[in-house]
Amino acid sequence: GENVEQHPSTLSVQEGDSAVIKCTYSDSASNYFPWYKQELGKRPQLIIDIRSNVGEKKDQRIAVTLNKTAKHFSLHITETQPEDSAVYFCAASIPGGYQKVTFGTGTKLQVIP
Amino acid sequence: NAGVTQTPKFRILKIGQSMTLQCTQDMNHNYMYWYRQDPGMGLKLIYYSVGAGITDKGEVPNGYNVSRSTTEDFPLRLELAAPSQTSVYFCASSTVLGDTEAFFGQGTRLTVV
Asked: Following DSSP, what letter does each residue of A60-105 receive, concatenated?
């Protein structure tokens, strides 16, 4: 089955700096890669996603890059703000009769004012 | 717009007791999921459903049961609760099976003592 590894598990940055979270996946058939943000005590919410036919996608301060050859994808947050502090989860999805979504183990991001 | 609603938010069970976690969505999504979230372990799929009357096992189904009698409701049943079932449980729904954004409920924190 699919295996998704996520690094680092914790990340502290100064406000205004950039943050990068990396994920690798094992199954080359994976074709959908969402990123979820989970604030403390709240539900996960989608912040950005990318499909396998696209190499990069941006949404304001957030961007995701995908390298299919290396089977890894990354979340980039620029100009970090205290409200970016949360746990971020990557996921990879494999097409098929049941399109299985496998989540990474999460990265706790702390933005220090 | 309520989205996905879970009840209860918190529950303490004694070993061997049973309970049902309720989940309702008002977005007319065919696909629904139950996940458990353990510290540092990401989200693990327990069961999923592709429509009323159709359910299937995910990665960690042992000790749980589900039913889907309507499009809106997807309850999760815990029989003979064990300490290993202490976790945060999330219900989610989506328009497409695994290939698009999943909308999560607010979670249920369950402790088995």
From this structure: TTEEEEEETTTTEEEEEE-S--GGG-EEEEEEEEE-SSS-EEEE--
